[in-house]
Amino acid sequence: MRDDVARALATKALEVAQKAKSQQGLKGEKGDPGEIKVLNVAVPGEQGIQGIQGIQGIPGESIVGPKGDKGDKGDKGDKGDKGDQGTIGKDGAKGERGERGFQGLKGLDGPKGDIGPMPKHEKKGLMIRFEKEPGTWGEWIIMPTGGGGGGRDDKLTDRQAELVALAEFYKTRGANANKFVKTDGTNLVWADGDGVGTVTSITAGTGLSGGTITSSGTIAIDSTVTTNSGTQTLTNKWIQPRVFASTANSATPAINTDLYDMVVITAQSVAITSFTTNLTGTPVNGQKLWLSITGTTAIALTWGASFESSLATLPTTTVATNRLDIGLVWNVATTKWRCVAVA
Q1: What does the pLDDT look like over 77-118, one tens digit per residue?
Q2: What is the rounded distance in angstroms from the CA atom of residue 7 to the CA atom of residue 63?
Q3: Is 253 helix (H, G, I), strand (E, B) or coil?
């Protein structure tokens, strides 16, 4: 359809162009020939009058037809078949022999062989000696620890030789029962004897009585010395209390009455739910225990079965951030810590 319209428009445009084509003007008339006279000199004839130029034709109107639509792209053609492989050419002539190459790398070492049997030997710590022949031993040497390989540097020093000799001497103790060791100035030797001697003088030192003894006697502890179970009166002595300071902030404080006379609890922010749970120790009749509690606010106090009130009542809370002191004494009759003071 589009092609038919395009052809019709092109034909119409050609007709209009042909009608408008300019016409060529008429050719003018040829002039009369000039008069010819026979003279000795030739005289040219006059030039004829030039004809009138024709009227110029009207220029034709140029009409350009519309451009046609681009045609669709054609399909891609199929790929041609692969050609057959050519035949293999003949082998070329053998080349000349090349130069000798470099030597190849050394191959890996073969597996390590088994270790041979250990010769007969004796060891003492880092020292060792080997049997040269049956019943004959070589010198003691120190076994190398850094791969030294032996040699004179591995032989015993004088000090080490002395230690070896002492060890050898010690081996003979079984055959020398009830003997003692003495020296003859060069070597250690076993000597007979019962080890009994005579004391010529014993002087009693500070805190002891009964000296000086030159034959026989008794040394005793002086009466001015305090003993563990003796009945004695101490004068001008200060007994320093054993104090345990705790900031554990525990609801069940750990208190060992065998180790401490006073427990100071500070920065307590949680209520104490039981003083009995983690209470340990084996108190004696009349033993004293002092508790001091300081809270970050008013803290509730629960004592548990190991505590009892007297005329002084066990407190049930601290007051604000004030320090609370409780004096306790062990009541052997009730096996409880008895509150005797609150401040």
Answers
A1: 788 788 888 788 788 888 888 888 778 788 788 888 787 777
A2: 14
A3: coil
- Position 336 pLDDT exceeds 90: yes
CA distance 140 to 122: 9
Q: What is the DSSP string of 121-168?
A: EEEETTEEEEEEETTEE---EEPPSSS---SGGGBPPHHHHHHHHHHH
**Model-level pTM?**
0.41
Dihedral class, residue 145 (left if φ above 0, else alpha if ψ from -120 to 50, else beta): alpha
All structural domains of the chain, each given as residue ranges with its CATH number in brackets, are 122-170 (no CATH), 243-342 (2.60.120)
- Give the type of residue at 131: E
Taking the mean position of all CA atoms in its chain, how far away is CA 312? 61
For the ranges 40-44, 190-194, 265-269, the lowest mean pLDDT is seen at 40-44
Are 6 and 66 in contact, with CB atoms under 8 Å apart?
Answer: yes
- Distance CA(294)–CA(249), nearest Å, equals 11
Residue whose entry in the numeric block shows the structure tokens 């005793």: 220
The residue among 198 and 102 whose pLDDT is bigger is: 102
Q: Which residues of 101-125 are buried (b: 16+ CB within 10 A; e: fewer)?
A: eeeeeeeeeeeeeeeeeeeeeeeee
Report yes or no: 339 and 289 within 8 Å, Cβ to Cβ: no
pLDDT tens, residue by residue, 26-62: 555 665 655 545 445 455 556 656 666 666 656 666 6
